[in-house]
Design brief:
The chain has 307 residues and is of the alpha+beta class. It is built from 10 helices and 13 strands.
């Protein structure tokens, strides 16, 4: 049994590990761990207390994938509900679809009686107002909702560090693998923006036959490169988990134009061997967490940096 999760995952590590150790499924452990993160306002890039778009509105994205069946569920731009990851799992289990977005995702969340929440905490609201006061000229503030917003989205990309996603990868006692992601999105982004978190093949992928992958940071890049699926495919073709991550980082390095920046890849092969890799040096707080049944302990691991 193995659990690999990124730095935002800390609030849910204990419950996820206990679920695996008790014989629970990888998918259950992933969902349980992410739910704890979504409910913790200290995690500024996920769920409650996360960051809004440029208009101050909160929306969340999430996805899960079952490596045993290759089934997946995702929601994008979901407003008004605390646990986007659980709504995503309900999409997988109750609908013939893989992804719902916007008003349709919210309608389905009401249908399955998901827990409601405004998500925007007083602290997040203060941080948003501070950013607006610093980056939007006074005359622009009065016209923010009606005016052009593209320039503000680029500005937010340059000076806001909150572009994170919580990533969980798990292997249970039966060898089944699952992956899950959840995020409140790029801070002060253009309204309606979706990153890679709800996109199967870009932000996450899981396949019992080969392994799993989850990505964080600049989702625009991993969408363009199909990073999560690429890592799993490289393993399918015989690469080790570290070789697969390095190949995927090389793919990201070939991207030209658009918004470019840091990407972290978290990967696990079908034997439970893991790798965390980044396309540039990351601050220590971005270290990932690894728990393995044979060691019975959770430890922090730094990402390998592409050369």
């Amino acid at each position: 049994m193995v659990l690999l999760a990124n730095c935002e995952a800390r609030p849910g590590l204990g419950p996820a590990v206990r679920a695996l150790a008790a014989g629970g499924s990888a998918l259950d452990a992933v969902e349980l761990g992410i739910r704890k993160v979504e409910a913790d306002p200290r995690i500024r890039s996920v769920g409650l207390g996360g960051t809004p778009d440029v208009l101050g509105e909160m929306a969340c994205d999430a996805a899960v994938m079952d490596g045993a069946t290759l089934q997946a569920g995702a929601v994008g731009a979901l407003k008004g509900f605390l646990h986007a990851v659980s709504v995503a799992r309900q999409v997988m289990e109750k609908l013939p679809h893989v992804m719902l977005a916007g008003a349709g995702a919210a309608r389905f969340a009401r249908e399955v009686r998901a827990e409601r929440s405004g998500l925007l905490t007083p602290g997040a609201r203060r941080a948003y107002r501070k950013w607006v006061a610093r980056r939007v000229r006074p005359e622009g503030r009065r016209r923010l909702e009606a005016g052009p917003l593209a320039g503000y989205a680029w500005q937010a990309g340059r000076d806001i560090a909150t572009k994170g996603t919580v990533v969980y990868l798990a292997m249970d006692m039966n060898g089944n693998i699952a992956a899950g992601t959840s995020t409140s999105g790029w801070a002060y982004r253009y309204p309606g923006r979706l990153g890679d978190s709800p996109i199967v093949g870009a932000g996450l992928y899981a396949d019992n036959r080969h392994g799993a992958c989850g990505c964080s940071h600049i989702g625009e890049m991993t969408i363009r490169a199909g990073t999560a699926r690429a890592v799993v495919l490289y393993m399918k073709k015989g690469a080790t988990v570290e070789e697969a991550c390095r190949e995927a980082l090389a793919d990201l390095g070939d991207l030209k134009g658009g918004f470019l920046g840091p990407v972290m890849i978290h990967a696990m092969d079908r034997e439970g061997r893991t790798c965390v890799a980044a396309n540039r040096k990351m601050r220590p707080r971005f270290n990932a967490y690894l728990w393995q049944a044979r060691t019975l302990r959770t430890r922090r691991i730094p990402p390998t940096v592409a050369r």
